[in-house]
Design goal:
Structural class: alpha+beta
Number of strands: 26
Shape: elongated
Helix content: 25-40%
Distance between the termini: 84 Å
Radius of gyration: 30 Å
Oligomer: single chain
Strand order of the largest sheet: 5-4-3-6-2-1-7-8
Strand content: 15-25%
Length: 605
């Protein structure tokens, strides 16, 4: 087979496939060009997520008519003054960005320099369609219409307009976060969705583009190590999210996505956050150009460091130092030798129809939720009518141990033993026939609530409680879209909500078993779960994650004093609940120290 030179039009389309796989990619190239042109204000207008058209206008230096013609040729750029391709100090230098976009769409380019005349050039899918004078102020305007309209093979792989819009908005957010000195405005389908003023400080810009509460729940990072500087904003451990969508890394002012950041953050926040929670961070790393390769990816969304361990250590150390100086220190883990004697013993699920539990016949157990299994007798019913459900108690219970109204049960009747007390308002200490059991009350009850919610997902609707005053929760549009689409399934879990404008939802009811909860926090976490696994999992699988999040909100919290009856009720419920040996995040809910090991600790054996 003979080798032939590809025609220029086809070459541009191949290049477009590398750089412009969707509207957000084209938008990224255009906004980066505007930043490199010295703009102080950038306006973005998109329609149907950029599929129909997208427009970027700036007040930068502009271009002459000759420059415009050259800019639409491949491998022409103003961003490399010499041949040192590794010394890239701008956001990019790919000269084929404009011609690549113009090869798969209709591109209109207007521009004017100071003291010159405006000029317009129109290229329609690689062919020059028109050019001539244009009346405009200093700067440049690029309009891209009908992206991939004549390339159906690529057009069919685009997502819905709402999904493409969310990707476009994320691109502008990241670039706007990197340059707080520049004003950014974004309009979608004629409606303004983002407006940040130039001249902001870094914290104010990050908070404006993520969540307003971040300003009061964050600390700054400022660290130098040789020629490398690390700065930015990180959230306090108490301010976190269910997914890592608000974690941003910038290298020499360029937004990048790097797996190094994920591991570094996990190390920095170890012992401060649960494994399923993620901090909000925006880190700005400045390194010499010789120490980083920005040409790893065609769109420059990835970088490669010459010394990755130095960078990771700097991120972990810098963040830990900032957190420690603010007073948040890790709890020291016990030595492995001290834990060697401890073991977790699984409780097998009961046979529902047999009436036997753990090898002996028992009366039906009392459930915290008071729904499936009735109390064993009227006396027990009176106790648990007063105590259950835990989650719906409007205020913490009395801070003292109370004598149960029933005769104390025998130790040998229950595998998890009988409650003898509570430590640190977090751990239940129980005496079992063969040892000492310690239960994490929050982790245990979290699992119990989750199993109840799962029954709702299997067809048994979870009872809901209507709010006296419906609560409006403000979120970004993509999050509201996901919640609205999942509303029927969420109703089965007891969460009743409806759309309330483009960027808000109204919550009318929450699951009764959760009691009085923070609706804003609950709905935000549900939206995070739906977003974090949107592409990888189906709706039913995502709802499993939503149920786990809801269970965490509705469970008995650490730091709450329980009386003896409540502690025993929790233990009995655990004994008849599947998977009660682990919480929703994989951590153990209880551990047992065998009596032989206790005697060894005191030198009796």
């Amino acid at each position: 087979m003979s080798i032939r030179r590809l025609p220029e039009k086809l070459v541009n389309r191949i290049a477009a496939g590398e750089v412009v796989e969707r509207p957000a990619a084209a938008l990224k190239e255009l906004v980066e060009n505007a930043i490199d042109a010295g703009a102080t204000r950038i306006s973005v207008r998109i329609a149907e997520g950029g599929i129909l058209w997208l427009e970027v206008e700036d007040d930068g230096c502009g271009m002459t008519a000759a420059d415009m013609a050259l800019a639409l040729e491949r491998h022409a750029t103003s961003k490399l003054p010499d041949d040192a391709i590794e010394d890239v100090t701008t956001l990019g230098f790919r000269g084929e960005a404009l011609p690549s976009i113009a090869s798969v769409a209709r591109l209109t380019l207007d521009s004017r320099v100071v003291g010159g005349d405006g000029w317009r050039r129109v290229v329609d899918n690689g062919a020059l369609a028109a050019e001539g004078p244009a009346a405009r102020a200093k700067g440049t305007r690029v309009l891209v219409e009908h992206l991939f309209a004549r390339v159906p093979a690529r057009r069919k792989f685009l997502r819905s307009g709402r999904s493409e819009y969310a990707a476009c908005l994320d691109v502008v957010r990241r670039l706007a976060m990197a340059r707080p000195d520049i004003a950014f405005v974004v309009e979608h389908d004629g409606r303004r969705v983002l407006d940040v003023q130039g001249g902001q400080d870094r914290l104010a810009r990050v908070a404006a583009l993520t969540q307003r509460e971040l300003a009061a729940n964050s600390i700054g990072v400022d660290l130098d190590r040789g020629e490398v500087h690390l700065g930015g904003v990180i959230s306090l451990p108490t301010y976190n999210r269910g997914i890592a969508d608000h974690q941003y890394l910038f290298v020499n002012g360029r937004p990048v996505k790097d797996r190094l950041l994920v591991g570094a953050l996990r190390g920095a926040y170890a012992d401060l956050l649960a494994r399923d929670r993620h901090p909000v961070v925006a880190l700005f790393l400045d390194v010499p150009t010789s120490e980083v390769d920005v040409n790893v990816h065609p769109a420059k969304t990835e970088v490669r460091f010459r010394d990755p361990q130095l960078i990771r250590g700097m991120i972990v150390g810098g963040l830990r130092r900032a957190l420690d100086e603010h007073g948040f220190r890790s709890v020291q883990r016990p030595a492995e030798a001290a834990l060697a004697a401890w073991r977790q013993e699984p409780v097998p699920p009961p046979e529902p129809a047999s009436g036997f539990l753990f090898g002996r016949r028992t009366e039906p157990a009392v459930h915290l939720f008071g729904t499936d299994m009735p109390p064993a007798n009227e006396a027990v019913a009176r106790v648990y009518d007063r105590l259950t459900p835990f989650a719906s108690a409007p205020a913490p219970l009395a801070g003292r141990a109370e004598v149960a109204e029933l005769a104390p049960p025998q130790v040998d009747e229950h595998p998890l033993g009988i409650a003898r007390g509570q430590i640190a308002k977090t751990y239940i200490v129980a005496e079992a026939e063969d040892g000492l059991v310690i239960v994490d009350q929050h982790a245990a009850h979290e699992r119990l609530v989750l199993e109840q919610l799962r029954r709702g997902m299997s067809g048994q609707a979870v009872p809901s409680q209507g709010l006296l005053l419906p609560e409006v929760v403000e979120l970004d549009e993509p999050a509201c879209d996901r919640l609205e689409a999942a509303a029927p399934q969420l109703a089965a879990l007891g969460v009743e909500l409806e759309r309330f404008g483009p960027a808000a939802v109204m919550v009318r009811a929450t699951p009764a078993m959760l009691g009085a909860i923070d609706c804003h926090k609950l709905v935000t976490d549900i939206a995070d779960d739906l977003a974090g696994y949107d592409a990888a999992l189906g709706l039913s699988e995502r709802l499993e994650l939503v149920a786990a999040t809801m269970a965490c909100h509705g469970s008995v919290r650490a730091g709450r004093t329980l009386n003896v009856a409540e502690m025993n009720a929790l233990l009995r419920q655990m004994e008849v609940t599947p998977h009660s040996g682990q919480c929703n995040h994989g951590r153990p809910t209880w551990v047992k120290l065998a009596m032989d090991d206790v005697e060894k600790l005191f030198g009796r054996k």
